[in-house]
Amino acid sequence: MMRDHATLPRAGAIERRRRRDSAAATKRAYKHAAMRDCGHRCVYCATSLGYESATLDHVHPLAHGGANAIGNVVAACSRCNLMKGDMLPHEFFVRHPWAGANFIRYARAVHRALKRSARRAVSLAMADTGRWAQPIAA
Ligand SMILES: [Zn+2]
Q: Would you list the domain boundaries of the chain?
């Protein structure tokens, strides 16, 4: 019969592996859900994505306290994901209103507040463009 202390390291290894597997499974589940919700497109540039080429983007970045949860996770191509980096969604959409417009259209399952923020950023960017496009009154 095995002594109790002999089973401890093994139990620890199993527990570690269980946690790692479950984190990977969560990530896979998020990716599948995000791909489905976004119609297998990058939510920022609308390019179509395969499961392998898709990356998961945290709309409100983890680095700024965003949640690793459905509602904050979207499918994006690696180019857009890299371009967005740790920018807050508002900053990113003001800078790249086309990404905001696609996001409003394709990120169907994100939290309402994120969509609201995207709409505000896009109209702000458009208003700015409009202002600078106007001839300056003499
Ligand atoms: Zn993209």
A: 4-130
